[in-house]
Amino acid sequence: MVLQGQVALVTGAAQGIGSAVALVLGRQGATVIGTDINEAAAQRISSALSEAGIPGRGLVMDVRDPEQIEAAITRIEKEYGVVSILVNNAGITRDNLAMRMKDEEWDAVIETNLKSVFRMSRAVMKGMMKARSGRIINITSVVGHAGNPGQVNYCASKAGVSGMSRSLARELGSRNVTVNCVAPGFIDTSMTKVLEEKQKAALVAGIPLGRLGQPEDIAAAVGFLASPAAAYITGATIHVNGGMHME
Amino acid sequence: MENIEQRVRKIVAEQLGVNEADIKNESSFVDDLGADSLDTVELVMALEEEFECEIPDDEAEKITNVQQAIDYVVNHKK
Questions:
Q1: Most B CBs within 10 Å: which of A77, A82, A122, A129, as the mutation test of the B interface?
Q2: Cα of A124 to nearest chain B Cα, Å
Q3: Which parts of chain A sit beneath pLDDT 50?
Q4: Do the chains contact at B38 and A174, CB–CB below 8 Å?
Q5: What is the band of B78 on the pLDDT scale with cuts at 50, 70, 90?
Q6: Is the ipTM reported for this complex over the cut 0.95?
Q7: Res B58: pLDDT
Q8: Cβ count near B24 (within 10 Å)
């Protein structure tokens, strides 16, 4: 139970990668607050945590809304203590070819995937700096490194988070707060379920390990970065993609 | 109850990890007490907490030495 006494906040925790991350951090001993955009999703998080015997709860929070962020952080600090692990996982896609992409599609993805990560990080960093300890872990994407047609907005948002993480790692290093990214490849979640079988087969052909990843594959990397074993890692990205992209 | 000057000096000593005896009222946080930019932000946060006030960014920028911090608190204390 290496995370005993820690308070972990995971955004977008109702399904997919976020849900797996919440469970892994909880099994390592952390109190877990999972947030998602509506009440039904927050309740799913609460039940998943209590079924697993993990202290914490689901909370409604729209990462695009600064007031909701502030309210959530205040409430968490009051009920559970200062957030010591933040996992920025909430994200959306609005795919379109660049030629056809609307400003709204661009803005929605940048607001949810990039700006929210800044806002969330800013909201928790005061407590982490004071505690002289903290972990910020951002879920980026292989396509933020490799690029992907039809996803200029999504790729820009993820590459943006990656650059932000490195800057933040430099700003907060002297206070023993680490900032890292986990960059998933193609993971079997609702985000990739929209792909057609033919597209999926073509994708898998380009993955040396020959399969899509599971949310648990990503959660394991997050669990490691949150643990004391990763104390000397900051500004780094762990690629978890079955070898489809290598740097 | 300690007076404001003593409380400010105590916070400065704690935040910047310096000996209270080495702090003069005219000591500059950066030039004399070795603070970096992050230290000065944290110091302002600590002052806000201790004196239950909010120091706006443009005011915070003008607080560069111990006396200025004391003056700000004296003038803005509820």
A1: A129
A2: 14
A3: none
A4: yes
A5: low
A6: no
A7: 93
A8: 13
